[in-house]
Write a structure and sequence with these properties.
heterodimer; A: 264 residues; alpha/beta; 6-stranded mixed beta sheet; 4-stranded antiparallel beta sheet; 10 strands; B: mainly alpha; two-stranded antiparallel ribbon
């Protein structure tokens, strides 16, 4: 169980640029939940994810993972619990390291690193079999710098890297937003497969209502730093994008005019 | 250029190859431009020399020099990561402080090691045997080659380990490194210490090779190290880490040969005092070459299409 309790985050406190990104967000994520978080620009959805990952620290509220309080742990100390896929394909991998070196790094996420060789035959075998499921031919390119891969290929490898090690939750930060529609669909399918077969707990931030309903078993909508609705399982089944817009209108009292949310 | 000058360039090239590897670690791998090396090279020389003239075993003295260099590097990295000071400024602070510290360590601006027992003494004894005196020209380059090769393999082994990979990720993408649970600040502390330990080792070896330690010998070390790295990259265009390390050593040799040639070709009329100018020109050329090459390729490609 992951508990985000009454999170408050303010950026640029005390300046003219002061922004209250989160104003009391509470979210309890059960083991096996796949939560999609949706909201317009500035709603606070990325801030929730960054707070969970330890990139942003709340001035009020707590974060706990399986009853361990991690509120003040820096991101590198949360790595044993949280695996992460970034929005920017460049951010989740090291461009000038090879595919296998990137995977070797991820294989030790949050664990002690030793003076042992980072790569051996056994690792390469494992990486090859993991990569072959993508059917992108990457299993034959272990020695290529990962920077040579396209954005979609890098996101696919990032997903595989994320699940090399067990975790409490996988955090997906608009991980298809930088991709073309066809590639995005491929990455989305891969996400569903990987989350299902490993029975992961997941938090996916997205700007696409369609995507939010398509994946997972629970959808949370944020507006102005607050949770405005939270639907799951039975209640969520059969919901369509217009239903969501309707819900949003009812709860927040404003018409939604965010193009990025309406169009996708 | 005669044989002695050629061999001399090789010897210096191998010794400064260590500096080049150190600069590769800081500049390229950790993305931490570190000018401490201008102070840690004479620091290594100073510590080693004062210990040797006090009667300490030369290997022991060399080991102490490495430790001293690591402490200097640690200081720079600590100032930078703990107090969030720009790496260049932090390293300039340490470098400046080291000038005084080196004078304090030696007690005077230079120490002669002529006649003292150094790590090269057994080799000199060997080559002064009458029947193999010709070996003298080859034995020192060989010894420096062995040292550089040994260090190269050690660093390569380290960079291929889980810890070494963490260090490379730190410089390449610190955000990703953190997400993988790597304590990036510790990596910088350790990496910059290691880098300066290597530079101090080069200083200690150079002092024993040249027969003196001088407090001003560090001036421009960073440029010479960077020159070797950049020349190596321009010539070999390394893609993997082992090649990058080898390119450092070869770049260092190539650079020292180029200097020797430039100062020896009489029609250029260059003299010893022109050394730094020649250095700057060579580094400049090496930095421009890859861009020029790309431009020419672009030009050819555009013509090919037309």
């Amino acid at each position: 169980m992951i508990r985000l309790t009454d999170l408050h985050v303010t950026f640029n406190r005390g300046t003219a640029m002061e922004t209250r990104a989160l104003r009391g967000v509470t979210l309890n994520i059960k083991k096996g939940d796949f939560v999609s978080v949706i909201g317009g620009n500035g709603a606070g959805k990325s801030t929730v994810l960054n707070a969970l990952c330890g990139d942003v620290f709340p001035e009020r509220g707590t974060i706990s993972i399986d009853d361990q309080d991690v509120t003040i742990l820096p991101s590198w100390q949360r790595a044993p619990f949280v695996a992460r896929v970034f929005q920017d394909p460049m951010a989740g991998t090291c461009a000038n390291l090879t595919i296998e070196e990137n995977m070797a790094l991820a294989m030790k996420r949050g664990r002690k690193r030793t003076f042992k060789m980072a790569l051996n035959k056994e690792h390469r075998e494992k990486f090859r079999s993991q990569l072959s499921r993508l059917k992108l031919g990457l299993e034959n390119r272990l020695h290529d710098p990962i920077g040579l891969l396209s954005g979609g290929q890098r996101q696919a490898v990032s997903l595989i890297m994320a699940v090399l090690e067990p975790m409490k939750i996988i955090a997906l930060d608009e991980h298809t937003a930088a991709l073309d529609p066809k590639t995005a669909a491929f990455i989305l399918d891969l996400t569903r497969e990987i989350v299902d077969e490993n029975q992961l707990t997941a938090l996916m931030v997205t700007h696409s209502m369609h995507q939010a309903l398509e994946l997972g078993n629970r959808t949370v909508m944020l507006d102005e730093g607050r949770v405005i609705f939270d639907v799951r399982d039975e209640e969520r089944k059969g919901l369509t994008v217009p239903d969501l817009l309707d819900l949003f209108h009812k709860k927040s009292g404003v018409e939604l005019d965010d193009d990025s949310m309406l169009l996708s | 250029m005669n044989l002695i000058q050629f061999m001399g360039a090789l010897e210096i090239g191998f010794i400064y190859g260590l500096v080049a590897i150190a600069v590769l670690l800081s500049f390229r791998i950790l993305d931490f431009p570190d000018l401490t090396v201008d102070g840690s090279l004479p620091l290594g020389a100073a510590v080693c020399a004062i210990l040797i003239v006090s009667g300490v075993d030369p290997w022991m003295a060399t080991g102490c020099a490495i430790l001293a260099g690591m402490m200097a590097g640690f200081t720079t990295a600590w100032i930078s990561v703990r107090w969030n000071i720009l790496h260049l400024l932090a390293s300039i602070l340490t470098m400046t402080a080291l000038y005084s510290i080196n004078l304090r360590i030696m007690g005077r601006p230079n120490i002669a090691l002529l006649g003292e027992k150094t790590i090269f003494t057994p080799l000199e004894n060997l080559s002064s045997l009458e029947n193999i005196s010709y070996l003298r020209h080859y034995i020192l380059p060989l010894a420096t080659f062995v040292i550089a090769g040994f260090v190269l393999l050690l660093i390569y082994r380290f960079l291929s380990s889980e810890k070494g990979l963490a260090m490379r990720a730190t410089g390449a993408n610190s955000r990703m490194a953190k997400a993988q649970g790597i304590a990036v600040n510790r990596q910088i502390l350790f990496g910059i210490s290691l880098s300066n330990g290597l530079v101090a080792l080069a200083g200690a070896i150079y002092a024993q090779y040249a027969g003196f330690a001088d407090v001003t010998s560090g001036v421009g070390t960073i440029v010479v190290g960077l020159a070797a790295v950049i020349v190596g990259e321009a010539i070999f265009n390394p893609k993997v880490i082992l090649m990058a390390l080898i390119a450092c050593i070869l770049g260092s040799i190539f650079y020292h040969l180029a200097i020797a040639v430039a100062l020896n070709v009489s029609f250029l009329g260059l003299q010893a005092q022109d050394l730094k100018l020649v250095t700057a020109v060579i580094v400049g050329l090496a930095m421009v070459t890859p861009k020029l090459r790309a431009k020419i390729l672009d030009f050819k490609a555009s013509r090919g299409q037309a």
